[in-house]
Amino acid sequence: MSSNSLPANYKIGFLGAGQLARMSSLQAFRFGIQVAVFSDRDENEPVQFMTPFSFSGSFDSVDDMAAFAKQCDVVTLENEFISSEILKEVQEQSGTPIYPSPDSFALIENKLIEKQTFEKAGIPVTPYQLIEDAKDLEAFGKKHGWPYVLKSSKGGYDGYGNETVRDLEKAKKAYQSLGGNTGRDIIAEAFVDFTNELAVQVARNETGTVVYPCCETVQKDHICVAVLSPAPVNSRYQIRAQELALSAAEAIDGKGIFAFEFFLTENGDVILNESAPRPHNSGHYTIEGCITSQFENHVRAVMGLSLGSSRLNKPAVAMINLLGTHKRPAEVTHIKKALAAENGHLHIYGKMESKVGRKMAHFTLLGEDLEATYNKAKTLSRNIEI
Amino acid sequence: MSSNSLPANYKIGFLGAGQLARMSSLQAFRFGIQVAVFSDRDENEPVQFMTPFSFSGSFDSVDDMAAFAKQCDVVTLENEFISSEILKEVQEQSGTPIYPSPDSFALIENKLIEKQTFEKAGIPVTPYQLIEDAKDLEAFGKKHGWPYVLKSSKGGYDGYGNETVRDLEKAKKAYQSLGGNTGRDIIAEAFVDFTNELAVQVARNETGTVVYPCCETVQKDHICVAVLSPAPVNSRYQIRAQELALSAAEAIDGKGIFAFEFFLTENGDVILNESAPRPHNSGHYTIEGCITSQFENHVRAVMGLSLGSSRLNKPAVAMINLLGTHKRPAEVTHIKKALAAENGHLHIYGKMESKVGRKMAHFTLLGEDLEATYNKAKTLSRNIEI
C-alpha cells in the first residue's frame, strides 16, 4: 500500500464493532474499501448490518483475533479493551499491521502509564498517584485536598470507572466498587477546578499530521451532552490545547486518529485529562463541521494515505448527543424540526434497544455564531425522544 | 412510518445493486437504516460488500422481487430496467410500497411515453417521432434535417442506445443495430444545436419539494466527464431549467429524487432532453457541494421524511468523473494530489475490475470561482490512473 494508490479489494478490520467502527466504515466505503468487524459481544451491533464480513470472538484470544486480522489488509482499534501485549501477538501471528501500533498503545493503555508517558513529554497532567492501599487514600487526600477522583486504570469510559470522593469513608467504598481490592489498579487524581473541558483531535501518519480545532465538551453527570467548536474560550487557550495535543500524539508516535481531552483551569492552565487512540465522541461534529471528518482521516491515517484538511466549514458548530429517553425498542421520534433545519444533520446509530442515557444518535448544526447555533441546536432537538 | 419518527430495524430495499444503490446506502446508514439490495447479475457488486442483505434474481420475475420486497419496509429503484407493470405486481404481491411509484414510473418508462408525458405538461421537448419503418427514417430527416438522433426507447444510458445519424444509409444501419427490426421501439429526435447541457435534481414527497441548483454536465463522446455547479450560464436559464424540472416532477407525481437533463440552445430555449427517476451522475457533486446530498434526500423522500436543504456549501463546485484508464484489476493510482487538496473529495466505487471508460470514481472540488475550481480539479485529477 503506497500513499499514492488505492487497490480494489482492500479491507480494513475493526477490533470492536461499536459506533466508532460504524461511523469509520461510512468513510471507508467512500473510498471503495471493504470493512470487516470483530465483535466480542453476543448481540447484533449496528455495524454488522453494514458488512457481510462479521467475526466474533474474545478480546483475550490471540487466535481469534489473528484469524480475523488475516482477512484484513490493516487492522485498527475501536476501544481500549485489548492489551497491547495481545495486540502485539495478533500482529505477529497474522502478519497484518495494526494501527495505532501496539507500541503506541502500550504507552497509554492504562491511566497510570498514560500519565507517566505524557508527563515525560512535558505535558501538564493532573496530579495523580497509584493507590496501593487504604493508607494511600488518606495520604492523597491530605496532600491534594478533598474531594479527589478515583479511577480504574483500565477500561473506563463515559464516567464509568470514575468516582469523585469527598472523604476517606467514600474513598474506601469507591476503591472497593472500582475493583481495587480485587487486584485492579486504581489511581487517585487531584480534583481540578476547571472552567471548561476542551478536546482536540489529531490525525497523524508517515505523510504528516493534522490537528483539529479545539472544541469544548459540555458534560452533565460525567456524560458529554454537547460539543461546541471552536471552543468558546480565548484563542490562546485553544492554541495551547492544540500544541499539547500535537506533542501528545508525537510522544506516542501515533499513527491514526487521536483525541485528547483537557481541563482549562481558572488561572488559565491547560491540563491533559484523558487520551483516546481512536475516533472520539468529541469529534463527531467534524463529519459536517470540518472539511475532512475525524473518521475519514482515521481511515486515511491507518492506510498511510495523505491526510485531509481539518478546517471548519462554518464559523460555528454545535453537536448535541441524543441520549435514550425510554427503555424500549429504539424509535427516534419528533425529528421533524431537526430534519428540516437548514444545515442541521441528524445521525442515528441504528441500535435496536434504547435505554435512558444510552448514546443513540446525535444532531449537528452549523452556523455563524456559536451561542446562537448552540441554542438553536438545543431547541431543534429538545423534543426528540428515543 | 410517520414523517416525524424513525424506528430501528427499518430496511430500505434497492432494486438494482449498482453505484447509485451504493451511494444511497451510505446516506441510509447515517440514519441507522438497514439496506437490502436485489441484483440481477452474477458478479459481485461493491454494494454487496456493504450489507449482509443481498438477494439475486431476475428483473422479469415478480416472484423473485416480491420475495425481496417482503423483507423491506420500502423499495426504491436504481435504474429504469424493470417495467412498471411488473413493479406494480411486485408492490401488490409483497405489500411493500415502491417509490417512485409504478404509476409515476409508467409515465416515463420509455422515451416515447416520457416525451408525451412532458409535452402534455407544457414542457418543451425535442421534436421526436416513433419510427415504424425505413420510410419514417427518411421522412423525419426531410422534416427536421440531418443529422438527427435515433434512440432505443428503453434501457439506454451513457450514450449506449443512442446514435447520431447523418444520412439515410447511416440511419438504416443504426435502426438495425439499436434493435428496431427485432421489435424494439426506436424514436427519432431532431438534433438540437445546444450551447450547454444542463441538469437539475428535484426531491419530492408528501412533505414538500426541493429543487437543486442548475448544473452543467460536460460531455465527451456522449459520456459525462464533468459537472459544474452552478451552471456557468445566465441565471435566467438556470431558473428556467429549475422551473421546468419542478413541473416535470409534478407531472409524474414523483416521490423520490429525480434528475432532469436539458439542452440550452443558442437562442436561449431550455428543452428537456431526458429524465431519471433516481439519483443521477449529474448530482454526485451534491455529496459535499450541497447541504443535503441527492442521496440523502432520495432516502428521506422515499421514507416520507422532511427533505433537507439543497443550498450550495460553496459558490462553486466541480465534479470530475474518473473513468477507467486500463483494463486491469482496479487500482486507483496517483491520487496523492487529489487527496491532499483542501476541499477536494475523492470517491472510489469499489469495483473490482477496471476497463477503459468505465465509471470507477469521481473527484469533487469546492471553491469560490467556477472556472478556477474546474481547472484546478482537472489538474489535480489529471494523473490519476485506474
Which key terms come to mind for this protein?
homodimer; 386 residues; alpha+beta; Rossmann fold; Dna Ligase, domain 1; D-amino Acid Aminotransferase, Chain A, domain 1; 3 domains; five-stranded parallel β-sheet; 12 helices; 30% helix; globular
Structural class of chain A: alpha+beta
Please, how many helices of chain A? 12
CATH superfamily of the largest domain in chain A: ATP-grasp fold, B domain
Determine the fraction of residues in helical runs of chain A and give it as a percent range. 25-40%
The greatest inter-chain interface is formed by: A-B, 54 and 54 residues
* Distance from first to last alpha carbon of chain A: 43 Å
CATH architecture of the largest domain in chain A: 2-Layer Sandwich
Q: Which regions of chain A are unreliable across 5 or more consecutive residues at pLDDT < 50?
A: none
Let me know the average pLDDT of chain A.
94
* CATH fold label of the largest domain in chain A: D-amino Acid Aminotransferase, Chain A, domain 1
Beta-strand percentage of chain A?
25-35%
Quick rundown:
Two copies of one chain form a homodimer. The first copy, chain A, contains twelve helices and 22 strands. Chain A has about 375 residues and is an alpha+beta fold.
Would you spell out the secondary-structure blueprint of this structure?
Two copies of one chain form a homodimer.
Chain A: E1 5-7, E2 11-15, H1 19-30, E3 34-39, E4 54-56, H2 62-70, E5 74-77, H3 84-94, E6 98-99, H4 102-106, H5 111-120, E7 128-131, H6 134-144, E8 148-152, E9 162-165, H7 168-177, E10 186-190, E11 194-205, E12 208-211, E13 215-220, E14 223-229, H8 235-251, E15 256-265, E16 270-276, H9 286-289, H10 294-303, E17 316-323, E18 328-329, E19 331-333, H11 336-340, E20 344-348, E21 353-354, E22 359-367, H12 370-381
Parallel strand pairs in A: 2-3, 2-5, 3-4, 5-6
Antiparallel strand pairs in A: 7-10, 8-9, 8-10, 11-12, 11-13, 11-15, 13-14, 14-17, 15-16, 17-22, 18-21, 20-22
Helix pairs in contact in A: 1-10, 2-3, 6-7
